[in-house]
Write a structure and sequence with these properties.
The complex is a heterodimer.
Chain A lengths: L15 H4 L2 H15 L23 E3 L14 H5 L5 E7 L12 E9 L8 H5 L5 E3 L14 E2 L1 H4 L15 H8 L9 H11 L1
Antiparallel strand pairs in A: 1-4, 2-3, 3-5
Chain B lengths: L2 H34 L15 H11 L10 H17 L7 E6 L2 E5 L7 H22 L3 H32 L4 H10 L3 H4 L1 H14 L11 H4 L9 H26 L8 H8 L3 H27 L7 H29 L4
Helix pairs in contact in B: 1-10, 1-12, 2-10, 3-4, 3-10, 4-5, 5-8, 5-13, 8-10, 8-13, 10-12
Classes of the chains: A alpha+beta, B mainly alpha.
């Protein structure tokens, strides 16, 4: 009685017409015939795609800055935040002459995401202090080999000539929220130490 | 032309068309199932998926052929052979269209007009159960055996009611030749007008004879894995499945010839006169109309399959023995009384 949808059931003998099956069969066939003209639920996938949510979380991208240098500094916060432990990386120091390739002094010489482990939660994107990693509306394609699901920098870093649009996920509001020091999780060690240092 | 050559050509054409229609029935089945469930169905192989049967055939041929070591090898191979052979043999007596004249020779679009055509048809269809029975028995598998037992008891049960339905039809038409039956319907009304109850009984029994839903107990996946063809693989399985579709095609043709005027259609001679068609053109139009009727009945088979759930086994036997058999006997009786009252007996 919680839902007020319960109905009193009456068990009675079927009438002759009901026992003869035919009316029931014919009405059933009328129903299936009606379905011939109904809209099909199928989305013919490779040709058509279902409309994605604007904040859909699909395959990751490692962004470049305006000059085309990689933003990632291999700080490892994404790997730490990853609940599925899908991200591994190796850091390296930027050499002289590589300034156009890497934005800061440290960069990821190897950056791998295991797409079979990844749960596409987006915590890496949330953790990233350099606006380097984003999830996009691209779908990770299926293949036959497990090895091919480990995406290295060749697949993750956006090509210089075709930047990947992440404006839907990186709206100004999101950016402002991420940099708002009022929130505890946005304060770094320096934010805690520096005001005190000033004090003394 | 030599009549023998003409016959050979007709045999070949009928055989080819039978196989073609059966092939595309598998495609149609999947399409009909899909659209009735608001899906699209096969659409990848070729335009609209029209090459799907071809892909299926290639798949069937390429699959590994497994003969269980505990099976009776010869009977195991014989099963699908009989199923396929009897299925293709039934098309012999069906008249596909009116006479066609080429030069001086006139020939019927029928392989042979047996004067006991109905009896022949009935005999060959009854033989079909041996394919299933032998296959199920030779597999040496309890699911196959159960399926085979179900198939044979079901076919025997429903053949009786089917036979009685046909007896009433034979009483009104007075002939066992299919050509005669079809020609009579050209002169008068279609037999369904005289034998509505007989038609209903016949079509129900036809569903049971072809092992189609709602009478597909011999191969019901949920209870018996695959029924009699559980152990079959590769093209031997393909033959069983194919034989079912051929049987469906022939059953549709038989229903159309028995009860719906065969290749005749209403006002055909008026139409031919009005358009000034030659006899040959009319015959070809008749063939087209006949295939239209057949395709409608094949669609009906599929329509019913994707609408109605399967009978329980005791319900199946109750329907066969307690409902259809008395009903068909009453139909014979009433037919006899009406004919006697009208002075036709």
């Amino acid at each position: 009685m919680l839902t007020n949808r319960s109905k009193q059931v009456v068990k009675r003998e079927m009438t002759w017409l009901e026992r003869a099956y035919f009316p029931a069969i014919l009405s059933g066939m009328a129903i299936t015939f009606k379905h011939i003209f109904m809209r099909k639920a199928t989305v013919k996938y490779p040709e058509q795609t279902r409309e994605f949510a604007p904040v859909y979380r699909g395959q990751h991208v490692l962004k470049r800055d305006e000059a085309g240098a990689e933003r990632c500094t291999a700080c490892g916060l994404c790997a730490v935040s990853c609940p599925a432990e899908a991200i591994t990386m190796t850091a390296a120091e930027r050499q002289k002459g590589e300034e156009s390739l890497y934005r800061e002094e440290k960069y990821a010489s190897k950056y791998e995401i295991n797409m079979l482990r990844c749960i596409f939660c987006g915590l890496c994107e949330e953790a990233c202090p350099k606006e380097a990693i984003f999830l996009t509306d691209r779908i990770v394609p299926s293949t036959f080999e497990r090895d091919s699901f480990i995406y290295g920098k060749d697949k993750l870093v956006e090509p210089k000539d075709q930047p990947v649009d992440v404006s839907k996920r990186q709206t100004p509001a999101v950016l402002a929220f991420k940099n708002d020091k009022k929130h505890k999780h946005n304060r770094t060690f320096l934010d805690k130490v520096l005001p005190k240092a000033k004090h003394h | 032309m030599d009549p023998l050559i003409i016959k050979a050509i007709i045999v070949l054409i009928v055989f080819a068309i039978t196989l073609l229609i059966a092939t595309y029935s598998t495609y149609a089945e999947r399409k009909v199932a899909a659209i009735m469930q608001d899906r699209v169905g096969p659409d990848r192989a070729g335009p609209m998926g029209l090459l799907q049967p071809l892909a299926d055939a290639v798949k069937m041929f390429m699959k590994e052929e497994i003969i269980p070591s505990v099976s009776n090898k010869w009977l195991f191979i014989l099963g699908p052979c009989i199923a396929m052979l009897t299925a293709t043999m039934t098309g012999v007596v069906i008249p596909w269209g009116g006479p066609i004249t080429i030069g001086e020779t006139t020939f019927d679009l029928q392989i042979t007009d047996l004067n006991i055509g109905i009896l022949y048809l009935f005999g060959v269809v009854s033989l079909g159960v041996y394919g299933i029975m032998i296959g199920g028995w030779a597999s040496n598998n309890k699911f196959s055996l159960l399926g085979a037992i179900r198939a044979s008891s079901q076919m025997i049960s429903y053949e009786i009611a089917m036979g009685f339905a046909i007896i009433a039809l034979v009483m009104t038409t007075g002939t066992l030749s299919l050509k005669e039956i079809v020609l009579q319907q050209d002169a008068g009304f279609a037999n369904v007008v005289y034998q509505p109850v007989g038609f209903v009984i016949f079509i129900i029994c036809a569903f049971a004879e072809t092992n189609r839903a709602p009478f597909d107990l011999p191969e019901c996946e949920t209870e018996l894995i695959g029924g009699y063809h559980t152990e079959y693989s590769s093209m031997k399985l393909g033959f069983y499945l194919f034989a079912e579709y051929i049987n469906m095609f022939i059953s549709s043709a038989v229903i159309a010839s028995f009860y719906f005027g065969g290749y005749n259609f209403p006002f055909q001679h008026e139409l031919a006169n009005a358009l000034g068609m030659s006899a040959n053109a009319l015959s070809i139009l008749q063939v087209v109309m006949f295939f239209g009727k057949i395709i409608f009945f094949i669609f009906l088979f599929m329509w019913v399959r994707w609408t109605i759930p399967r009978f329980r086994y005791d319900q199946l036997m109750n329907l066969g023995w307690k409902v259809l058999l008395p009903l068909s006997l009453a139909n014979i009786f009433v037919t006899g009384i009406v004919m006697w009252a009208m002075g036709k007996l």
